[in-house]
From TrEMBL:
It is a multi-pass membrane protein. GO terms for cellular component: membrane. Keywords: Membrane, Transmembrane, Transmembrane helix, Transport. The keyword Transmembrane applies. The lineage of its organism: Eukaryota, Fungi, Dikarya, Basidiomycota, Agaricomycotina. Residues 1-27 are annotated as: Disordered. It comes from Gymnopus androsaceus JB14. This is MFS general substrate transporter.
Length: 480
């Protein structure tokens, strides 16, 4: 889905955003001092250093976001549902849903202001703030205060994921992006996959300090997030043009290889008019728009957010202990499949289709459990693929900031839909939610085919219009 399509030569004229591109001298200083083999070794060393500096810390912090966002379902079946009477009417769906309202609305402003505040300042503040909210959720006396905490949680987590994706995509060439996003996401879901087991252990602290088991889930996980947020200020990376961990020579090398690849190594100014112009690009919406009301990543996140494994597993007949413990293996399987199949991302929606057909319509619990492995692997694999597919076909930091925020914020709509289509009254099979998820994946495949065909025709037109005898260049091509 996101493999690179390379142009035959340097870029000239206008890039895909319509702004003039500026290309450097293609690492001339480095090439003059090093042989081809030495230059390749130098490049590998720099990339490995960047990978180790960025991906583990970003993946770990995002795993905390996933844990703090999704532990509501675990806390519910660990006693919170009874204590706060969440089963009355639509209370649980409402508490789950309100998280996504500020999450959707604040994605774009946060990403646009990321450079103004600085990545370390803004992101570490977000982690500390939502960790404090998570901690406060342990002491809510009723469901209304719980809903308020969920609103604050969504507000502070809003800009975090799009900022991480934005930062990662500015450091690498296009054909390198998807594997880095997959590695980052692998770390997050592998760590987050064990959160249910950890939550089960925390819930066994029932009675200590006068708190119920579900309260201890929020106390411990909130405190861990808060402390990691404080430590993150010294560890979070900046954008490549103002980083502090590479030498000036290494930084120049990184910027020049990005300039050669797509011509946007340096940030451009973000203005309200430029943001509006970027929003007028129909491709940003097609990346996410499967129909007039749904978006591409939204459909994928319907699968991820809607599949609260602990609840679905309890509906298969397993008790609380087994449901919590059995929820981890599908995430482990998904974590490894994300990276292994980063080279074959087009097959993930089909994998999700097969998995959720098994979970929804097979009666044997063991086979339905196997379907969760396939469904989770497919949905998790789609996310880095779609993010890479969109970011690889965008040039300029301002448009990258806008597109990343828009795609992920509309993906948050999937959370709202998931909280309504996986309804308590459909327990234990959740057939309407399963059917909606399957239909979304079919629509995803159709839209992917349409957009890929559009890019193919655009690339064909660019190659046909090129005049190598005069310019020797072809404008930047879309990746397919």
């Amino acid at each position: 889905m996101a493999s690179a399509t390379k142009s035959t030569g340097s870029h000239s004229g206008e890039d895909m955003t319509g702004k003039p591109s500026s290309v450097s001298a293609s690492n001339s200083d480095i090439e003059g001092a090093l042989s081809v083999g030495e230059k390749a070794a130098f490049e590998r060393r720099i990339l490995r250093r960047i990978d180790l500096r960025m991906l583990p810390i970003l993946g770990l912090l995002y795993s905390l976001a996933l844990i703090d966002r999704t532990n509501l379902g675990v806390a519910r079946i660990a006693g919170m549902g009874e204590d706060l009477e969440l089963s009355v009417g639509s209370r649980y769906s409402l508490v789950s849903c309100v998280y996504f309202v500020p999450y959707i609305l604040l994605e774009l402003p946060s990403n646009v202001l990321l450079r103004f505040f600085g990545t370390r300042n803004l992101l570490s503040f977000c982690v500390v703030a939502w960790g404090a909210v998570q901690l406060a959720m342990a002491f809510v006396p009723n469901w209304q205060y719980l809903a308020l905490c969920r609103v604050l949680l969504g507000a502070f987590e809003a800009g975090f994921f799009p900022a991480l994706v934005f930062i990662i995509t500015t450091w690498y060439r296009r054909h390198e992006v998807q594997k880095r996003l997959a590695a980052f996401y692998l770390i997050s879901i592998l760590t987050g996959g064990f959160s249910a087991i950890a939550a089960y252990g925390f819930s066994q602290m029932r009675g200590i300090g006068g708190l119920n088991g579900w309260s201890w889930i929020f106390v411990i996980e909130g405190a861990v997030t808060f402390l990691f947020g404080l430590a993150a200020w010294t560890l979070l990376p900046e954008f490549p043009d103002n980083n502090k961990f590479l030498t000036s020579e290494e930084t120049k090398f990184v910027l020049e290889r990005i300039e050669e690849d797509r011509g946007d190594s340096r940030p451009d100014e973000i203005t309200i008019w430029k943001v509006m112009r970027h929003l007028s690009d129909f491709k940003l919406w097609i990346y996410g728009t499967p129909s007039s009301s749904l978006l591409l990543v939204l459909l994928i996140l319907v699968v991820e957010t809607g599949s609260s494994f602990t609840i679905i597993l309890s509906g298969m007949g397993w008790n609380l202990e087994h449901a919590l413990l059995l929820s981890a293996p599908p995430y482990v399987f998904a974590a490894f499949s994300v990276f292994v199949f980063a080279y074959a991302s087009d097959h993930f929606p089909i994998l999700t289709l097969v998995g959720f057909c098994i979970t929804g319509f097979v009666h044997e619990p063991r086979w339905r459990y196997f379907g969760l492995f396939l469904g989770n692997a497919g949905s998790a694999g789609c996310i880095p693929g779609i993010l890479a597919y969109s970011s690889n076909n965008i040039v300029s930091h301002s448009k990258r900031a806008v597109s990343t925020a828009i795609i992920i914020s509309f993906g948050g709509l999937g959370g709202i839909i998931a909280t309504t289509i996986f309804r308590q009254k459909d327990f234990p099979r959740y057939i309407p939610g399963i059917i909606a998820t399957i239909l979304c994946q079919v629509l995803l495949l159709v839209l992917l085919a349409v957009l890929t065909l559009h890019f193919w025709y655009q690339n064909k037109a660019k190659r046909k219009a090129a005049q190598p005898g005069i310019t020797g260049r072809i404008d930047l091509l879309y990746t397919l």
